[in-house]
Amino acid sequence: MPPALAALLPLDARAATLFLAALVGGLVRGFTGFGFAMVFVPIAAAAVGPAAAVGLIWVVDAPFSLWFGARSARRATWGEVIPLLVGSTLLLPVGAWLLTRLDPGVTRWITAGAILLALAALVSGWRYRGVPSLPLSLATGGASGLASGFAALGGMPLAVFWLASQRASAGQVRGNLMAYFGLSTLVSGVVFTATGVLSGPRFAEALPLLLPYGLGLAVGSHGFRLASDRVFRAVAYTVILLAVCLALPLR
């Protein structure tokens, strides 16, 4: 939705939309370790515009990302996480630049197409064996940084990266994602501030969303502890498919 049209929505309708997006996004993030942006950004963008939605998601998620990242540090495979962070840091500024210049409809078509290709690769049964190579890790991190910058979807390439591994368990995937986001949040905060995506109004508008997001995270995390690896992967694939549907600019 164009920002000018989004501004015409009643304040209570906009607030309810953002509240629901934060709650559902928190549930998904708590269970899978990723997916908050996949749910939140398409919904929030319809109410406040794409750039504002990306700024909001950073403010809402930052305290929780840092907390969960610190808790997951011991479980993370840092030999895989660090190269991803390097690649992400290099291309995140490019993604943020694109966010402020690309037409929102074009961005959403690109996002939906990329997610759909990733889902198709996973569902087809494609897997990689062994330890991920350095070029693969850097390229995946770069894709994550690019996606994070222009659509706050940095978790998508990483989820595919670890879900396609025959070595990683559900707990390992989730731990790596949490650790990665804990550090990448600091980098993206600097980049988003420098590019104008983060501003004072974003912090004020995000404060009421901390409660529904935190509640969703708590419930989702509890659900993860009760789920098997098979259920975890099924839910993760469903989240990816949902992201495709939400990203399509059909409205």
Q: In which range does the helix fraction lie?
A: over 70%
Note the beta-strand portion: under 5%
Number of domains: 1
Mean pLDDT level: 81
Instruction: Decide which structural class fits the backbone.
Output: mainly alpha
Outline type:
globular
Topology of helices and strands:
Blueprint: H1 3-6, H2 11-32, H3 36-48, H4 50-72, H5 78-99, H6 104-123, H7 134-151, H8 155-163, H9 170-195, H10 200-206, H11 210-226, H12 229-247
Descriptive key words:
251 residues, mainly alpha, 12 helices, 0% strand, globular, disordered N terminus
3D architecture notes:
- The protein is mainly alpha-helical and 251 residues long.
- The chain has helices at 3-6, 11-32, 36-48, 50-72, 78-99, 104-123, 134-151, 155-163, 170-195, 200-206, 210-226, 229-247.
- The protein has one domain.
- The model is unreliable at 1-9 (pLDDT under 50).
Short description:
With 251 residues, the protein is mainly alpha-helical. Helices cover 80% and strands 0% of the residues.
